[in-house]
């Protein structure tokens, strides 16, 4: 029997215990196709033996690139079953990002979803000396390609079936300490680092997660988050292998909302950005409805907030309020959950970055069991998860069983757990710096423990600062408050060692565009819309409204509307939409200077990067406005 602490052992275990139960689905042309665990394993077997016939062996690296597809999951598992490592990369990465990761990881095989992704790899082929095989899953558009390095996924599997071999024996040779996954960090402070996660890291962390969360056999999980994010590997792939739940791959990113509603998964994890987008959509729909529907929505929204306040404070809900809430469930809350795919959802998680408390309470009050999870790539994704009855926007919950946390004298959160990574790939010095003298992993987050033993994450330790008068300044807190507005997409605030707080704001094109249409305000593009005086007035009123709920020192005094949204291709944010603050501070240094010198406008040259890597420079004079 294979060691139970390896991913291949989990796969073989599912074949033995639940061979006919659904393992994975994919939606194509509007129809869901299902593979049971036996079919799942057969596909992994054929792929693994095909790779072995092509020379893939222990210690080799296989990268996957594309949207969530069964073929890509099977490819990752096939590499692990041969003693190799899977290296998922972000599907929207531009050429230079791909070249760095694939070169750094010394990738031997790349499995691409389709022609678009295959073309990306072929465009940088000369920069990838270790690449020997490029496999494409979707054959559409690939008929006229004759590069020797290319092979279709179906042909690779046919080679594996023809070659044969003892797949189970190969799986049993994999040891818990072998590196199964190399996940590259988002690179907020520089080049991404390859986090080496062993089979033991993956399996034991999945076990910890499945014990603390209500994940059950047969549960449907919608796999739509980037495969390069460690959360997809843990909450999707490894959790499914651990308990026998079902991964569901949507048809495309464009059909995600429709597929989510159709599937209504029992559990879902989404980054704060998605929850904020859904909330904006709900509020826009409510504002666009008839006067009667709008009044009904606002009335029962207030009822829901009152009921949620009672629950949070541990007070009984008064009978009258409870009756109105039940009526609201029939008229408002239930229909909203159904429209957004939460009809069957037992738990919903958010993580990766702080979620604004107003957004958090909104979904909780509407009956979505939204909870916060805290982790990082280096700890295989999980440190703490909020219990159902202790969800709170101000904490990330108690530490999971099996994980140990302490707060350093500097306020930094330190961790020991079975999920702590084995090291950064080819970065010995960075690995050593990631641990203190006693072997605790440094998360880089500033935080504390509250009276109940829940972790409170304040901000990234390096980002927490003070205004020039000594008042505390936590940029994420300010930014999350502002992003509760449906008209605001992204915010970057400044204030450390400054007399007051200023902010650069990127508008939400959809919601602001809808508002402009209702006002009969013509515009041509994002830049044109964002710089109109009416839009400045709209955003200013939102900032003033939010400022009223903040202490004086924490209020935004001046702001500027950006002429474009922040973009990962322009290196302003990571692929997981985390701000690259030091890069932004350098790029927009003239804006910061104008904020604090009293300027009313600034000449800004903005670099825009296109999908093919080309860059263009756009010159604009941007207005700065007071919001105090």
Could you characterize what this model shows?
- By secondary structure, the protein is of the alpha/beta class.
- Helix 8 packs across helix 9 (230-243) and helix 12 packs across helix 13 (319-339).
- The protein is globular and about 70 Å long.
- The termini are far apart.
Question: Can you give me a brief rundown of this structure?
Answer:
The protein is an alpha/beta fold and 628 residues long. Helix 8 crosses helix 9 (230-243) and helix 12 packs across helix 13.
Our count of helices gives 21
Distance between the termini: 68 Å
Supply Rg. 25 Å
Please describe the biggest sheet, giving its number of strands, its sense, and whether it closes into a barrel: 5 strands, parallel
Give the helix level as a range of percent. Answer: 25-40%
* Spatial strand arrangement across the major sheet: 4-3-5-6-7
Number of strands: 27
- Mean pLDDT across the residues is 90
Structural class: alpha/beta
**Amount of beta strand:** 15-25%
Runs in which pLDDT lies below 50 for 5 or more consecutive residues are none
Overall 3D shape = globular
Outline the fold blueprint.
Blueprint: H1 7-17, E1 22-28, E2 31-36, H2 37-53, E3 61-65, H3 70-81, E4 85-89, H4 95-104, E5 109-112, H5 115-123, E6 133-136, E7 150-152, H6 153-163, H7 167-172, E8 179-184, E9 194-198, H8 199-212, E10 220-222, H9 230-243, E11 246-249, H10 256-263, E12 267-270, H11 272-288, H12 291-312, H13 319-339, E13 347-350, H14 357-365, E14 370-374, E15 384-385, E16 404-407, E17 412-416, E18 423-424, H15 428-433, E19 441-449, E20 455-460, E21 465-466, E22 472-473, H16 475-482, E23 488-494, E24 501-507, H17 509-518, H18 526-530, H19 533-547, E25 556-561, H20 581-587, H21 589-597, E26 601-609, E27 615-626
Parallel strand pairs: 1-11, 3-4, 3-5, 5-6, 6-7, 10-11, 12-13, 13-14, 24-25
Antiparallel strand pairs: 1-2, 8-9, 9-18, 14-15, 16-17, 17-19, 19-20, 21-22, 23-24, 25-27, 26-27
Helix pairs in contact: 2-3, 2-6, 8-9, 12-13, 12-14
């Amino acid at each position: 029997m294979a060691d139970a602490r390896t991913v291949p052992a989990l796969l073989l275990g599912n074949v033995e215990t639940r061979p006919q139960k659904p393992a994975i689905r994919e939606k194509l042309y509007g129809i869901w196709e299902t593979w049971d665990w036996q079919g799942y394993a057969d596909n992994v077997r054929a792929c693994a033996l095909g790779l072995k016939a092509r020379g893939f062996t222990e210690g080799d690296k296989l990268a996957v690139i594309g949207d969530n597809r069964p073929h890509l999951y099977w490819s990752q598992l096939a590499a692990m079953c041969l003693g190799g490592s899977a290296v998922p990369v972000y599907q929207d990465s531009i050429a230079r990002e791909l070249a760095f990761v694939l070169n750094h990881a010394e990738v031997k095989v790349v499995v691409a979803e389709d022609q678009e992704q295959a073309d990306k790899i072929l465009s940088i082929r000369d920069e990838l000396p270790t690449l020997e095989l490029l496999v494409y899953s979707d054959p559409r558009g690939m008929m006229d390609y004759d590069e020797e390095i290319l092979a279709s996924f179906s042909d690779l599997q046919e080679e594996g079936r023809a070659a044969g071999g003892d797949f189970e024996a190969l799986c049993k040779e994999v040891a818990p300490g072998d590196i199964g996954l190399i996940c590259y960090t988002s690179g907020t402070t520089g080049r991404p680092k390859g986090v080496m996660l062993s089979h033991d890291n993956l399996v034991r962390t999945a076990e910890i997660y499945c014990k603390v969360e209500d994940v059950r056999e047969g549960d449907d999980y919608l796999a739509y988050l980037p495969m390069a994010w460690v959360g997809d590997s843990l909450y999707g792939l490894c959790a499914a292998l651990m308990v026998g739940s079902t991964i569901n791959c949507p048809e495309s990113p464009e059909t995600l909302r429709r597929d989510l509603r159709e599937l209504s998964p029992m559990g879902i994890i989404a980054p704060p950005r998605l929850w904020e987008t859904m909330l904006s959509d709900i509020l826009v729909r409510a504002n666009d409805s008839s006067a009667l529907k709008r009044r009904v929505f606002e009335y029962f929204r207030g009822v829901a907030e009152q009921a949620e306040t009672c629950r949070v404070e541990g007070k009984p809900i008064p009978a009258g309020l409870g009756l109105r809430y039940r009526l609201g469930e029939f008229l408002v809350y239930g229909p909203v959950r159904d429209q957004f795919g939460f009809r069957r959802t037992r738990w919903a998680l958010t993580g990766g970055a702080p979620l604004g408390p107003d957004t958090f309470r909104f979904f909780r009050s509407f009956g979505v069991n939204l909870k916060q999870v805290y982790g990082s790539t280096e700890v295989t994704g999980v440190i703490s998860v909020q219990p159902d009855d202790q969800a709170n926007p101000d904490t990330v919950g108690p530490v999971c069983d099996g994980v140990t946390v302490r707060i350093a004298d500097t306020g930094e959160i330190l961790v020991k757990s079975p999920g702590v990574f084995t090291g950064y790939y080819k970065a010995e010095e960075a690995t050593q710096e990631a641990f203190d003298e006693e072997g605790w992993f440094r998360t880089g987050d500033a935080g504390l423990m509250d009276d109940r033993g829940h972790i409170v994450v304040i901000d990234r330790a390096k980002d927490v600062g003070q205004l020039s008068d000594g008042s505390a300044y936590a940029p994420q807190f300010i930014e999350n408050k502002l992003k509760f507005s449906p008209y605001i997409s992204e915010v970057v605030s400044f204030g450390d060692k400054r007399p007051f707080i200023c902010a650069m704001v990127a508008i939400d094109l959809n919601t602001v565009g809808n508002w402009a249409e209702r006002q009969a305000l013509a515009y041509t593009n994002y830049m044109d819309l964002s710089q109109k005086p009416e839009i400045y007035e709209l955003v200013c009123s939102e900032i003033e409204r939010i400022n009223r709920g903040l202490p004086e020192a924490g209020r935004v005094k001046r702001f500027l509307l950006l002429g474009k949204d922040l973009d990962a291709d322009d290196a302003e944010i990571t692929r997981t939409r985390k701000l690259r603050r030091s890069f932004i501070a350098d790029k927009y240094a003239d804006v910061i200077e104008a904020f604090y010198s009293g300027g009313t406008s600034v000449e800004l040259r903005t670099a825009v990067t296109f999908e093919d890597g080309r860059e263009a420079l756009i010159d604009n004079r941007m207005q700065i406005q007071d919001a105090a």
